[in-house]
Write a structure and sequence with these properties.
With 215 residues, the chain is α+β, with helices and mostly antiparallel strands. The chain is built from two helices and nine strands, in the order E-E-E-E-E-E-E-E-E-H-H.
């Protein structure tokens, strides 16, 4: 797997958001592993750039059991609560020729569950309730900032990628123009040489075959 854009993550208190952007090549399967604890929430959202035909998103639990699968979707999302601890696999398959590729943006949001002590303390007083509301609002704001940074970095990466393509294309155009001019110059010089040689041969033959007339 070739990850062209690194991980952009932002954690705030008990929340975590992570973003990936990578190229998925034909006839390949790329997988990510996410460690989950009991009763933790995990939400996944993804978007496929360019074509979607043949792209399959798949999630399996630590025992290898499939818990989510969908095919040929431009974008999708899935949320679940872990009922067993371990590594959950998030995979993307692309059934196409090995020379084909698509870009995929993947965002994961993990929300650890509250402990029993936290649940007993929440809402015990008006102050605790206000603090709890502020905490949740801060978490939502932090996640929004994280997603904004991810999209901003993604657009910057695309701009750099396109700039590199444009630079390579300009170099090829200049090189091809140079070769064309050089070829035209060679052809012109060759034509001039052949014409001079032909004219020189014709004048020589005329002088040899000519006769002087005495009047």
């Amino acid at each position: 797997m070739k990850v062209i854009f690194g991980v952009v993550g932002l954690s705030w208190l008990v929340g975590l958001a992570t973003g990936f952007a990578f190229d998925l090549y034909g006839d390949k399967e790329d997988c990510f592993t996410q460690e989950q604890h009991w009763d933790e929430d995990l939400s996944m959202s993804y978007a496929v750039e360019k074509g979607t035909l043949g792209v399959t998103a798949l999630i399996t639990d630590p025992k290898g059991k499939e818990i989510f699968s969908e095919t040929d979707k431009k974008q999708g999302q899935f949320r679940f609560r872990a009922k067993q601890e371990g590594a959950y696999r998030i995979c993307f398959k692309y059934k196409a020729s090995k020379y084909s590729k698509v870009g995929i943006d993947l965002i994961l949001r993990r929300n650890p569950s509250d402990t029993a002590d936290d649940k007993s303390n929440i809402g015990s007083s008006g102050i605790d309730h206000t603090v709890d509301r502020l905490t949740k609002a801060s978490q939502r704001l932090a996640k929004s900032v994280g997603m904004f940074e991810f999209q901003q970095s993604r657009h910057r990466q695309l701009y750099e990628k396109h700039s590199e393509v444009v630079t390579r294309t300009n170099f090829r155009v200049k090189l091809w123009t140079f070769f064309e001019c050089f070829a035209i110059l060679l052809i012109s010089v060759g034509q001039i040489y052949l014409m001079r040689r032909a004219l020189s041969g014709s004048s020589g033959n005329f002088s040899k075959s000519g006769k002087r007339l005495n009047v």
